[in-house]
Design a protein that fits this description.
Distance between the termini: 12 Å
Structural class: alpha/beta
Order of helices and strands: EHEHHHEHEHEEEHHEH
Largest sheet: 5 strands, parallel
Bound molecules: adenosine monophosphate
Strand order of the largest sheet: 2-3-1-4-8
Shape: globular
């Protein structure tokens, strides 16, 4: 099964993707995580992406598309995948659709997590993430038991550079301009379900799972 999780930065895609990928038994593929890993290992893609990421802008389509197509060609993605943070532009969506066509496959569902702008800014500016396992925390709404330490793996928690308030506003503007048109694009294909992304995490998870059946 091929599923796309669509939503603004901070909508909860990472949190929901973890449960959903287990439920569907497919890998969770997040292009933001792939870029952060590429930066850490100093690869060519990582070096190209760095400036765009720090400014809160999108990495050029040709770079992200090349990276994503390579990732979904790996053996673990042959029975499907859950995409998080891709596609973010119409050109990316079309490339994904072409790649699926070539494999006589299709996109099964797009789940759009809808969260208000105010809530997104609050969430992102208090966000802490585990350096080791990527588990997300929030300074006020979901703090770890011990400050700075991951409850699950004892990894170190850090705040992303691009979660600074000004960069957050840029990222939300980019979402409105470049990514929001995908809502209409997938609605017209009849595969988009809109899920309210505020409230209890488990309730949101159940709504996402039931929208897939
Ligand atoms: P994320 O973790 O999904 O918020 O992504 C972090 C940053 O990585 C974004 O602000 C972009 O700079 C870059 N990025 C991730 N996915 C994409 C994508 N599909 N297209 C362009 N840039 C991306």
């Amino acid at each position: 099964m091929q599923v796309v999780l669509l939503g603004a930065p901070g909508a909860g895609k990472g949190t929901q993707a973890e449960a959903l990928s287990k439920h569907l038994n497919v890998p969770h593929i997040a292009t933001g995580d792939l870029f952060r890993a590429a930066r850490q290992s100093g690869t060519e893609i990582g070096n190209i992406a760095a400036g765009y990421m720090d400014r809160g802008e999108l990495v050029p389509d040709e770079v992200v598309i090349r990276m994503l197509l390579e990732r979904i060609s790996q053996p673990d993605a042959q029975n499907g995948y859950l995409l998080d943070g891709f596609p973010r532009t119409l050109d990316q969506a079309k490339s994904l659709s072409d790649a699926l066509d070539q494999n006589n496959s299709t996109l099964d569902a797009v789940l759009y997590l809808n969260v208000s702008n105010e809530e997104l800014v609050t969430r992102l500016s208090g966000r802490w993430i585990c350096r080791k396992c990527q588990a997300p925390y929030h300074a006020t709404s979901a703090p770890p038991a011990k400050a700075g330490t991951c409850d699950r793996c004892s990894g170190e928690l850090y705040q992303r550079e691009d979660d600074q308030e000004e960069t957050v506003r840029t990222r939300l503007g980019v979402f409105e301009k470049d990514t929001a048109p995908l809502i209409q694009y997938y609605t017209s294909q009849g595969i988009l379900s809109e899920i309210p992304g505020e409230g209890d995490v488990k309730d949101i998870e159940s709504k996402m799972i039931s929208s897939l059946s």
